[in-house]
Amino acid sequence: DWLYTPVSISMSDNRIYISDTGDFSLKVYSLEGEFINKIGVLGNNLGQFVRPKGNAVDKEDNVYVLDAAFENAQIFNKEGALLLFFGGPYKGPGDMYLPAQVIIDYSNTQYFEHLVDKRYDLKYLILVTNQFGPDKVSVYGRVELKEQ
Q: 109-118: long-range contacts at Cβ-Cβ below 8 A with a sequence spacing of 24 or more?
């Protein structure tokens, strides 16, 4: 499958993910460059994109894709099924303002654990850069309920 306007790339152990703004999608390739899958089409519904930008993949092969038009992040599993989304047009902290890039960080959770409800474990950070607005970097977290 062709790349029209690639804007961001990330890699897992066995896949390459490329946000293609010109094709309103996320393209998935093998490490050898063979096309595997295309996630998303042009549209304004969940699982669709208008201006896909940054992407990142976690250790479970879930891929995060930012959409600068909707100012949100959508999370897909490795089969391309939509799991959930977060963010939204900027009204305050936690929202996005033209998001550009997303990074998954497993190394710095200790700096944010005190902000998480004690019933949950912080597994990793999701860092999103914003092109405009007062919050140039937004910090989100992946949490799991602690075992009782």
A: 109/141, 112/139, 112/141, 116/141, 116/143, 117/143
* Total number of residues shown for the chain: 148
Question: At a CB cut-off of 8 Å and minimum separation 6, what does 47 contact?
Answer: 39, 40, 74, 76, 82
Give dist(CA 40, CA 46) in Å, integer.
Answer: 9
How high is the pLDDT of residue 1? Answer: 80
User: Please, are residues 18 and 40 in contact by the beta-carbon 8 Å criterion?
Assistant: no
Structure tokens given for 40: 């998303």
Cα dihedral sign, 49-71-88-107: positive
pLDDT tens for each residue of 13-29 = 999 999 999 999 999 99
Q: String of b and e for 98-117 (b: at least 16 CB within 10 Å)? A: bbbbbebeeeebeeeeeeee
